[in-house]
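Translate sequence into structure tokens.
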Amino acid sequence: MGRRLARELAFFALFQYDLGRVPWPDAVRWLLAEHELSPDAASFLQEIVADAIAKREEIDGLLRHYSQDWPLARMASTDRNILRLAVYELLYRSDIPVEVTVNEAVEMAKKFGDEDSGKFVNGVLGTVIRAIREMVAVPAKVDEGTDE
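Result follows.
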């Protein structure tokens, strides 16, 4: 339950940062004061919030590209921030299995979003995952020049 709760709290911190313009260290500190986490889970929380915010421009760029019918500003705030957290994990956390990231994101969307949030988050993440896998599967072009 440690990482699951830490993810939910990370979502809350990202949400506060996004909508309330609350500095993320303050949001994390308040959340840690309200919820008891193990030292490992608290560290995980701080790390994923700091990193997701630091990489937000890149994450938002991917979300804009792969959710073309839904501009970020038009997305529900809950969905947008759950997607930011999940895309961060997909791109930068090789220690977290893809299935875990998707499952956790969909469950949070169902819990905190509206009745369609789970399907929406799952669909966007599916598109992002396929794109990431295609990028990884395409070998880099090798210069085919001669050594003469």
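Note: Residues 2-137 form a domain with the N-utilizing Substance Protein B Homolog; Chain A fold (CATH 1.10.940.10).
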